[in-house]
Amino acid sequence: MSYENVLILLPEGVGVRNFIYTGFLQEKKARLWTPLNYLSSQYDLVPLPDYHGGGMVDLYKNALIRSNLKLSYSKYGNKAYLDYIRKSTRSGLRHRIKEGLIDLFSFSSQVTGIEHLWHRYLSAIRKTDYYRDCLEVLEREAPSVVFCTNQRMSSAAAPILAARDLGIPTATFIFSWDNMPKGNLSVPAEHLFVWSDYMKDEAKRYYPWVDPDKVHITGTPQFIPYTDETILWEREEFCRRYGLDSQAKLICFSGDDVTTSPYDPMYLEDTAKAVARLNARGEERYQILFRRCPVDVSNRYDRVLDRYRELIVPVDPLWEKPEGVSEWNGMMPTEADMILLANTVYHCETALNVGSTIAHDFACMGKTSCYIKYNVPDHREWDIEKIYRYVHFESMDGLDPVYWIEDPRQMAETLSNAMDDTEQKLGDARSWLHRIVKHPLNDANERIWKNIETIAQGKQNACRVSDA
Fold it and tell me: From CA 443, how far away is CA 167, in angstroms rounded?
């Protein structure tokens, strides 16, 4: 097939990490359909029209997410599905009316009601100028297939729907390991590319209207950098670059966003105290490498970093924030940060944080991680137990893949055990990783391309999405 005739829909900057910096386009000269003009010097770009979705599109999208979650709750009885619902906290009459309409539209928790809502969502998209602009682009470019790198972006729904209405085969990639239970499958592509057998089972479970034969197991490019030894630096070089003690054992504290973990600064301070206790033993020297969440540019850690500057070395992610961008998905990862993260995992002994993907990153390099699981005193308005009740942690079932820090007084000992893996959790960490993502990790791009080829060859089977 002609790869130049494949259109890769890259609607936002976060996907650049997966589909630009991992060699995805190294041999396949496909075109990028994207608003990211800065990529034009390296790739054949087709500009994505300026996004203007329309108020009803946004209302129906959010109503669909809530209805999907209510359906899952009604089927499985787990209130954790409802915890995924995010309601606006903005004040004002307009926002209250919007929330009321979303609740009104999402009254149904039955498949038939959701299918009706889905068709209203598609109909609203077709009425927008943005949809018509995308139609014009597709009619001019005439791609053999359109592949979207993110299944939940509002700006990607109209381009994919326009492609389907023109009989062009479409596929979308599931963005993250925790996305399937969250109800946000907003891009109406024919084909889903998922990470693993486990994720394919989730697709069947949460989206019964999706054809299982069109759910393809590809893995993810996200972990490919951990298989590339050529990007790793020598220990002395890494420590020199970031002011770290090359003789110390490094512990990575990986920050979360403020919504997931509002008390991260307190957890970081508890970690510093635990590391001070480890250092007091005099057996080894330990140091904390602090990597904040790339989209957290707040000053909430400043007091702790200043107080424990001898123990904590901040190594900030090398993401870029274009001028005028305020939303998290406008932040731009860089290839330099991909390399920095791989070296951080390579040179640190273990990691700790509140329930993030970092456990999988460290398992890629044969290391265990710790999850923090205790509440901060006198802050009862937030409960850390809610984090680990989220449905995506059911993927741990039957495994004990991380070290749990359930009391700050035991943190030093838990960190020590994790670095030495005294409980031999690495085997379960690797099993969890195999459950989450198809191996070999570095074959993900090849698997994605093979499925794109197969879909392009079956173009005659593509059809318009019905309004009925």
Answer: 30
Strands ordered across the beta sheet of 45-47 = 45-47, 31-34, 6-9, 145-148, 170-173, 191-194, 215-217
Tokens for 40, please give them.
Answer: 């034009």
Q: Helices H, strands E: what count in the chain?
A: 17, 13
**E strands along 72-212, which residues?**
145-148, 170-173, 191-194
Which amino acid is present at 31?
R
Distance CA(214)–CA(420), nearest Å, equals 44
Strands (E), 285-355: 286-291, 312-314, 348-353
Residue 396's nearest CA partner among 435, 443, 350 is 435
Sheet strands side by side (includes 403-405) = 312-314, 286-291, 249-254, 348-353, 369-372, 403-405
From 152, 161, 76, select the one nearest 125 (Cα to Cα): 161
Residue 33 burial class via C-beta count within 10 angstroms: exposed 0-12, middle 13-18, buried 19 and up: buried
Which domains are delineated in the chain? 3-53+128-220+442-461 (3.40.50.2000), 55-118 (no CATH), 227-436 (3.40.50.2000)
Question: Residue 412, Cβ neighbours under 10 Å: how many?
Answer: 22
Tell me, what amino acid is at 303? R
Distance CA(116)–CA(120), nearest Å, equals 6
E strands in 283-393: 286-291, 312-314, 348-353, 369-372
Strands 6-9 and 31-34: parallel
Higher pLDDT, 113 or 6: 6
Looking at residue 106, the DSSP 8-state letter turns out to be T
Structural contact between residues 452 and 192, judged by C-beta atoms closer than 8 angstroms: no
Q: What are the backbone dihedrals phi and psi of residue 376, each rounded to the nearest 5 degrees, phi first?
A: -80, 130
Q: At which residue do the structure tokens 């920050």 appear?
A: 255
Cα(192)–Cα(190) distance, integer angstroms: 7
CA distance 307 to 294: 22
- Where do we find the tokens 């033993």? 281
- Residue matched to tokens 């999208």: 61
149 within 8 A of 176, measured Cβ to Cβ = no
Residues 63, 66, 69, 71, CA torsion sign: negative
Q: What is the residue whose two structure tokens read 């909430």?
A: 300
pLDDT in tens, 56-101: 999 999 999 999 999 999 999 999 999 998 877 677 777 677 778 8
pTM summary value: 0.93
Reported as a single tens digit per residue, the pLDDT across 368-418 is 999 999 999 888 788 999 999 999 999 999 999 999 999 999 999 999 999
